[in-house]
Amino acid sequence: MDASPRKIVHIDMDAFYASVEQRDDPNLRGKPVVVAWRGSRSVVCAASYEARRFGVRSAMPAVRAERLCPHALFVPPDFSRYRAVSKQVREIFLRHTDLVEPLSLDEAYLDVTAPKSAFASATAVARAIRAQIADETFLTASAGVAPNKFLAKIASDWRKPNGLFVIRPHEAQAFLAPLPVGKIPGVGKVMDGKLAALGIRTCADLRLRDVRDLEQRFGRYGRRLHELARGIDERPVEPDQPVQSISNEDTFERDLPLPALESAIRELAVRTWADARRTERIGRTVVLKLKTADFHILTRSHTPPLPPASQDDFVAIALSLCARVELPATTLYRLAGVGLSNFRDADEFTQPELFL
Fold first, then answer.
1. Which of 142, 166, 208, 326 is deepest in the core (most CB within 10 A)?
2. What is the pLDDT of residue 90?
3. Could you write out the DSSP letters of every residue in 63-116?
4. Residue tagged active-site, from 101, 107, 249, 280
5. Average pLDDT of 142-151?
6. How far is Cα 147 from Cα 334, in angstroms, rounded to an integer?
7. Residue 183: CB atoms within 10 Å
């Protein structure tokens, strides 16, 4: 760890869209609320904690949420209202630091190494921000305080909802050791399974692996995994950086022919769609990236007339791009990636189906 670490706060609003709806409509308070349009193609934008007790989660198909919680109250999303509240919350952040990096409408990183406000510690700043959010918006937020962004994000989820958790620099190694690798950003079901096959279940297990072996198996992400398992994350808080592209990629344990990539591409597309939903901007261009066994990289992309309207649409477009790969059928691939780019502000689009 750096001898003079940053002081990073990650703020995450609790069940944000659903909480705004419950705040503004007393009839919804204390009841299972699902923010989603009804319909077979709709997905859950947010679920109140009352609905989460029944297994309802964000990004879940709305029809499944209705099966899990038949008495749930479905409320169509009102993004203009959510953006207004998000702006109010960010104004609170800016009282304490100019170094605010929004990740979406409901979460942000703050660098409070040298805060504008006169609080003695990052923990005090986090407490003040949570109190101000509660007083001024009548909503709750959870906060994580740590020496870097990776640890702060994990910490903010540790005592949700309406919690505060602090990971001090000298505590990071002990805290991370038993942490499941599935908690590391970017480790989805596929990667978790690959790590499990190697006997890697915790950050302590990752630390014991040779970084060169991880890099050989998983590319640059292998080195990144090794660093995160040791609590190393040098990324600075970058204020006012609009999202330009979002992607996920995986290096396979063995080289595979193109027809065998379907399940991997599908999984990568699902992960990328979930990541894209965390930003208030909308991506238009779907990108497929492939790396051959001899390390030749090729990309194929498609920009539909309207942005992908749902996870299913996005997955279908990503899979369709395989048909535009003109290499011989005998070609083997060691890596696949799926991305979404050409992002625009949500206000440029008016069709409600774009938010499904």
1. 142
2. 95
3. HHHHHH-TT-EEE---HHHHHHHHHHHHHHHHHH-S-EEEEETTEEEEE-SS-S
4. 107
5. 96
6. 35
7. 14
**Model pLDDT for residues 36-79, shown as the tens digit of each residue:** 887 766 778 899 999 999 999 988 888 999 999 999 999 998 88
Sheet containing 33-35: order of strands: 46-47, 33-35, 73-75
Active site residue 348: no
The encoded tokens of residue 201 equal 């279940």
Contact 69, 46 (CB under 8 A): no
pLDDT single digits (tens) 179-233: 999 998 878 888 899 999 999 999 999 999 999 999 999 888 899 999 999 999 9
Q: Can you tell me which residue has the tokens 């702060």?
A: 152
User: In the chain, what is the greatest distance between 2 CA atoms, to the nearest angstrom?
Assistant: 65
Which residues, listed in sequence order, are joined to residue 335 by a DSSP beta bridge? 251, 291
Helices 211-218, 189-197: inter-axial angle, 10-degree rounding? 130
Structure tokens at 307: 């942005």
pLDDT on residue 348? 66
Cα distance between residue 15 and residue 52, in whole Å: 10
For 95-116, b where at least 16 C-beta lie within 10 A, e where not — what string? Answer: ebbebbbbbbbbbbbbbbeebe
What is the residue type of 199? G
| Alpha-carbon distances, residue 317 vs 186, 301, 303 (angstroms) | 22, 9, 9
